[in-house]
Design brief:
Elements (H helix, E strand, L loop, with lengths): L1 E7 L7 E5 L24 H17 L3 E4 L4 E3 L2 E8 L2 E2 L5 H16 L8 E11 L2 H11 L5 H16 L3 E13 L29 H10 L8 H17 L6 E2 L2 H9 L24 E11 L4 E6 L6 E13 L12 H7 L6 E9 L1 H24 L6 H20 L3 E12 L2 H19 L2 E3 L5 H7 L15 E4 L1 H5 L4 E2 L7 E3 L2 E3 L4 E6 L2 E5 L3 H4 L5 E5 L6 H15 L2 E6 L3 H11 L8 H7 L14 H5 L1 E5 L10 H4 L3 H16 L1 H31 L4 H7 L5 H18 L2 H17 L23 E5 L16 H20 L5 E2 L6 E2 L3 E6 L2 H4 L2 H16 L2 E7 L3 H12 L6 E6 L5 H7 L10 H9 L4 E5 L5 E6 L4 H6 L7 H4 L14 H18 L1
Parallel strand pairs: 6-17, 22-29, 22-30, 23-25, 23-28, 24-25, 28-29
Antiparallel strand pairs: 1-2, 1-10, 3-4, 4-5, 5-8, 5-9, 7-8, 7-13, 10-11, 11-12, 12-14, 12-15, 13-14, 14-16, 18-19, 20-21, 20-32, 26-27, 30-31, 31-32
Length: 998
């Protein structure tokens, strides 16, 4: 058997399929040419009759697609429209949300069955392989300034996804709008059969010898559908889409329709990536090939053959379709046994679903139910009258029929007649049979549903999967008459899709699909830091979890990816994990040398004064590691850090409160405020003098030194000395404690960062990566600032000042894109490790709220990495109470050690603290597995995938395993990096060889 489908047509496209069959005593096989099989000769009546018979046979067998655009398609005389339904993750929905999800399809479909005609619908759940190459090209295309290694990184990840067969679930709903044939009647969405029809003479005949020859070779006539007719049907389709708007779908594109036609004819083989139809205009008898295949129709399955156009190599797939033959007597809606969800998520191999159903208006549905009930009752009475006891099965059928009739009478709702089919494919017959047995067994055991494989009907069942009118099937006994709600009870749109999801508004795409970060079930999860702001969402990302759960590995992976893409990244790194990643990727195994940390602390790495030279010079040249505690005093002076002098004064108060603690600060607040006012007054006077001398305001600000905390302390000391000299006991009493506390304060380890007679600013951040480390930094043991000792207060306040500094360093103006040459805002990211130290205090939370809001305006994302979630919840809650949008657009929550900690994380995921399902899941997560809440507020489980052995080594923060993993230099080019799967296989092979040697 040979099938060829061709596209063409003067208006949009015209599709035809010809089936040339050759029979044999054992099986039907065949081969042919798409242009073969011309008309019979006209020299005699007999040959002419044969030609007419041949033409008639070919006409009956062809697939009559006549027209398609991005809203409708014509199949024979029928007009259809398609809707691509979004996949909704249901993993952590509560009972009320699940019920709403189950009821949504029925509520929408009931809008179609309000008239007096049946409405034919076709639901398809299929799996489309991710075109990873296109994804990588698009991701590299949106990067600001990608390195060559970044481009290779994404291309290699594309290869990785294709190797393991990454696919996305597609849920398609097709609705028959009606018929273009006058008087056809039948099903449709318009009441009274008022369908727009073809007018006489609209279909043009074949004229001319060339046209006749082409039509004879193809079986296709040059056809023209009037714009008026198409416009009428397009308007009908739009009205259908509006009535189904609550499903959140989008019109099925012509490209996806063609893919949907090709998919059943490829089995488990990849559908080749063809150019988008419509790339050129069609003229008379011009066609594009849609699908070209040969197949064998067997009793229990179909064998599909595809041929490589370049090599001629044949690829074969085996496919079979099963029908749901019986269901439990009573079916209660449960998430775990929803039939469509179960087939998608609980079967190890892809199971495609094909559901043909007819929506039946209320009165017709009631009449059908009444007849069925009456027939069953009559059968039961006949058995009783003949002395036979009715079977249990018949009694159950009578009860179900009566219950259905009662429901119809009570609710006066339309119904549906449906047949559910499941298609599986495999590379060989043995695997196909194994999958069939597994599917039948799982459905029987878990769902109490019996699946049967109809014999000698596989070809028609395969044809039935094609969009448009279905062939008549003799397996009608498996049709089910039921309420429309039963469709939603299967949760057909439930899936595992998470992560980046570009949004379309007013014809524009907002966002893109970012880097691969892991897997939600069988579905890849992609995420980029700036997709949230690109979709007008918040500029914050939270990565929370207990130590050892995997949060650092994810944060480090994102830091590497984003900085290599051209995002200017600044990291506040108290534990030096980020610095260690940079050291390993730049210097390789040299990081294990005992003297390496000494040169790192001295800032000598890569210089002539150091024997440690980078193995990746390009990476190191774009990296700066700053050890703040080893640097000059005064780099965190509030007037150095702040954007302007008034902001510096507010920050100075906040820092002094943090350094001294609330109690001591309140005791010295008055003399401190007075000293600040004096120092700021000096500055303002100097500014006025400079402007009076002819300087502009901007030049005056550049020339006049800003106030300093050192001056504030000096002023307090001077006021105390003057009070002592003047014998003012009251003033002495008031100032003594202040001068004593402040004088001592500016000598302490962390406080010295904020105090200097001539404070120095950090160098401008102009490299891809700047890591600010605080070696020896001791984070507070408690998240409650009331229990912090003086040293912990100093450390926390210093870290808060660093965050303020970091947010100001990212506030830069427009730059010229080195790739496009256009001027714009360069994307930036601030990573804050141990963020709970900052967010534990109200002043720290205020700082973070301010930084998050400001970040969105200059395209800066803040990544908060923390073990404590409660403070982030407070930030989100305060925004919600003030009527603002949430500032944290994405959350990754790793393992929590207790139920209490887990309950505090739940609100960050959009779930209540009392949600035991989420709480239990957070406590049971394995290392490297997290719960993600994405920009669309979807929540699901994600297994983080580092993909490369080199990234695994670079992100290892375990002091025991890190030296071993970092004992090998990473290859200079990502093209030479090793997939973790390959490394694991090599390790297993080595172990096997070693065992054999022993």
């Amino acid at each position: 058997m040979f099938l060829m489908i061709l596209l063409g047509g003067a208006v949009a496209f015209f599709l035809i399929a010809m089936l040339l069959a050759a029979s044999s005593s054992k099986k039907n096989t065949g081969s042919g040419n798409g242009r073969s099989g011309g008309q019979g000769k006209t020299g005699g009546s007999r040959s002419q009759g044969r030609g007419q018979a041949q033409a008639k046979r070919r006409e009956e067998m062809r697939l009559p697609y006549r027209y398609a655009d991005d809203m409708i398609f014509v199949h024979g005389e029928s007009v259809w429209t398609g809707i691509a339904l979004p996949t909704a993750i249901d993993e952590y929905l509560n009972a009320v949300e699940l019920q709403a999800m189950a009821e949504a399809p029925a509520r929408a479909l009931l809008n179609l069955a309000r008239g007096d005609r049946n409405v034919e619908c076709h639901y398809r759940k299929v799996y489309r392989p991710i075109t990873a190459q296109d994804w990588a090209d698009q991701l590299n295309g949106v990067a600001w300034d990608p390195t060559e290694n970044y481009k290779a990184y994404n291309l290699r990840k594309a290869e990785y996804q294709e190797r393991i067969g990454a696919m996305r679930e597609r849920n398609i709903l097709l609705v028959k709008l009606g018929s273009m044939k006058r008087g056809a009647g039948g099903s449709g969405v318009l009441p009274g059969g008022d369908d727009p029809v073809e007018q006489a003479g609209v279909t043009r005949s074949v004229r001319g010898a060339a046209d006749a020859a082409a039509a004879g070779a193809t079986g296709v006539h040059d056809e023209y559908l009037s714009p008026e007719l198409l416009a009428h049907w397009t308007q009908v389709a739009r009205e259908v889409h509006e009535s189904l708007e609550s499903l959140g779908g989008s019109p099925l594109s012509r490209e996806e329709l063609v893919w949907l036609i090709r998919k059943p004819l490829h089995g488990d083989l990849a559908v080749p990536a063809e150019p988008l139809l419509g790339s050129r205009s069609w003229g008379p008898d011009q066609f594009d090939l849609v699908v070209d295949f040969s197949g064998e129709n067997h009793k229990t399955h179909i064998v599909l053959h595809q041929y490589d156009e370049m090599t001629g190599e044949r690829h074969t797939s085996y496919t079979t379709t099963l029908v749901a033959a019986s269901w439990p007597t009573e079916t209660r809606f449960r998430q775990s046994t929803a039939w469509a969800r179960y087939a998608a998520q609980h079967v190890e191999f892809p199971v495609e679903i094909d559901l043909r159903f007819t929506l039946i208006p209320y009165l017709k549905f009631k009449d059908r139910a009444k007849k069925i009930s009456g027939n069953l009752v009559d059968e039961m009475n006949d058995m009783a009258n003949s002395g036979r006891a009715p079977s249990t099965q018949l009694a159950a059928q009578v009860t179900r029929a009566q219950n259905l009739l009662d429901d119809v009478d009570e609710h006066k709702m339309p119904g549906m007649e449906a047949q559910i089919r499941f298609t599986i494919s495999a590379p060989d017959l043995a695997e196909l049979e194994r999958r069939r047995r597994v599917l039948e067994m799982q459905f029987k055991q878990d769902l109490k549903v019996t699946l049967l494989r109809p014999s000698r009907q596989q070809w028609r069942l395969l044809q039935s999967q094609l969009p448009g009118d279905a062939p008549r099937l003799p397996v009608a006994p498996y049709l089910r008459l039921q309420e429309v709600e039963q469709l939603g009870a299967g949760l057909p749109t439930a899936g595992t899709e998470l992560g980046d999801n570009p949004e379309h508004r007013s014809g524009k795409q907002l966002g893109w699909v970012g880097n691969l970060v892991g897997w939600a079930g069988k579905t890849p999860v992609h995420y980029s830091l700036h997709v949230g702001p690109a979709r007008n969402d918040g500029g914050g990302v939270a990565i929370v979890g207990a130590s050892g759960g995997g949060k650092s590995s994810l944060a480090l992976q994102k830091f590497y990816e984003e900085s290599e893409s051209g995002v200017r990244c600044l990291v506040i790194d108290p534990k030096t994990d980020f610095a260690q990643l940079c050291y390993y990727l730049a210097f390789g195994s040299q990081v294990n040398d005992p003297e390496f940390p000494l040169d790192a602390e001295a800032g000598l790495l890569g210089t002539q004064q150091s024997r440690f030279q980078p193995v990746n010079r390009e990476f190191w040249d774009e990296t700066e590691v700053v050890d703040l505690l080893k640097g000059q005093a005064g780099v965190l002076d509030p007037w150095v850090v702040a954007r302007d002098v008034p902001s510096g004064r507010l920050l100075a108060e906040t820092m002094l409160r943090g350094f001294l603690g609330d109690e001591d600060y309140q005791r010295v607040r008055l003399p401190v405020i007075e000293a600040m006012a004096t120092v700021v007054g000096w500055y303002n006077s100097a500014i006025r003098q400079a402007t009076e001398q002819g300087l502009s305001a901007r030049d005056a600000e550049r020339q006049v030194p800003r106030p300093t905390l050192w001056q504030v302390v000096d002023e307090v000391v001077r006021a105390y000395d003057n009070a002592v000299a003047g014998g003012d006991r009251e003033a002495v009493k008031e100032l003594k404690l202040a001068q004593m506390l402040l004088t001592e304060l500016r000598t302490l380890p962390y406080a010295r960062l904020a105090f200097a007679e001539n404070p120095q600013t950090l160098s401008a951040m102009r490299k891809r990566r700047t890591v600010i480390t605080l070696r020896g930094f001791q984070t507070p043991a408690s998240s409650d600032p009331r229990s912090w000792n003086p040293a912990e207060r100093l450390a926390a306040t210093a870290l808060m000042a660093v965050v303020e500094l970091g947010s100001q360093m990212l506030d830069v103006g427009y730059e010229k894109n080195p790739v496009t040459g256009e001027v714009g805002l360069r994307p930036k990211a601030l990573f804050v490790d141990e963020a709970y130290v900052v967010t534990a205090t109200e002043s720290g939370r205020d700082l973070m709220r301010r930084a998050l809001k400001q970040g969105r305006s200059y395209l800066a994302v803040i990544v908060l990495i923390t073990q404590q979630a409660i403070d982030l919840v407070q930030i989100e809650d305060s925004e919600a109470r003030s009527g603002g949008a949430n500032q944290i657009h994405t959350v990754f929550a790793f393992k929590q050690k207790s139920a209490q900690e887990a309950s505090l994380v739940a609100p960050l995921l959009g779930r209540p603290e009392s949600d035991t399902k989420v709480s239990n899941a957070l406590q049971e997560l394995r290392t490297g597995v997290c719960l993600q809440r994405d920009v669309d507020k979807r929540v699901g489980t994600v297994a983080v995938d580092l993909v490369f052995q080199e990234i695994l080594a670079a992100t290892d923060t375990n002091g025991t395993t890190r030296p071993g993993r970092q004992s090998v230099d990473p290859p200079l080019s990502v093209w030479d990096w090793t997939f973790m799967q390959e490394a694991a296989r090599e390790d297993r092979s080595a172990e096997t060889e070693a065992a054999a040697a022993r």
